Amino acid sequence: MSDEPIALAKALASFDALWSPRIVTRVNDYDVRVAKVDGEHVWHAHDHTDEFFLVLDGELHISLREPTGERTVVLAQGAVFTVPRGTEHKPYAPSGAAILMIEPTGTPTVGDRHDEIPAHVDATTGHPLHS
Ligand code: NI
Predict the structure, then answer these.
(1) What is the SS3 assignment for 48-109?
(2) Residue 44 C-alpha to ligand 1 middle, in angstroms?
(3) From the CA of 38, how far away is ligand 1's center (Å)?
(4) How many helices (H) and strands (E) does the chain have?
(5) pLDDT 10s digits, 68-121
(6) If you measure from the C-alpha of residue 87 to the centroid of ligand 1, how many angstroms do you get, rounded to a whole number?
(7) Which backbone phi and psi does 118 adopt, to 5 degrees?
(8) What is the rounded distance in angstroms from the CA atom of residue 112 to the CA atom of residue 93?
(9) d(CA 60, ligand 1 centre) in Å
(10) How far, in Å, is the centroid of ligand 1 from the Cα of 3?
(11) pTM of the full predicted structure?
């Protein structure tokens, strides 16, 4: 982890892979990750942790399966949203987006339960950022 400030724009420019988060820093036991996303992720749930999203660029949709039914929240640039632990969700970026996530170190991007993982989705606990 760097002991220097991280410019998020520079961090995002350092890789091209979609749905493949890079760890930019850590806060206590949490990763701060950035990702470039486009199209659909996969339905999944994190049984033991909430998941924080901040949209840095573009627009992110997150479909949620809640006890009352399914709904989709739309996050514009600058919006934040937390998916509660245990809630099945599927991020979707119709026109591409850059996002920042905060979740416990070691949290798999596809959760503890998930549908079949499509080839374009990287099932990872986050990659180190190479500056
Ligand atoms: Ni998730």
Answers:
(1) CCCEEEEEEEECEEEEEEECCEEEEEEECCCCEEEECCCCEEEEEEEEEEEEEEEEECCCCC
(2) 6
(3) 15
(4) 1, 10
(5) 999 999 999 999 999 999 999 999 999 999 999 999 999 999 999 898 988 899
(6) 9
(7) -70, 155
(8) 22
(9) 13
(10) 28
(11) 0.94
52 Cα–ligand 1 center, Å: 9
CA of 92 to the centre of ligand 1 (A): 11
CA of 50 to the centre of ligand 1 (A): 8
- Unique residue bearing structure tokens 């996530």: 101
Rounded Cα distance, 131 and 128, in Å: 9
Residues with CB under 5 A from ligand 1 (ion): 51
Answer for the pair 30, 82: CB distance below 8 angstroms, yes or no: no
Residue identified by tokens 């991280």 is 6
Which pair of tokens denotes residue 60?
A: 């992110």
Is residue 87 within 8 Å of 65, Cβ to Cβ?
yes
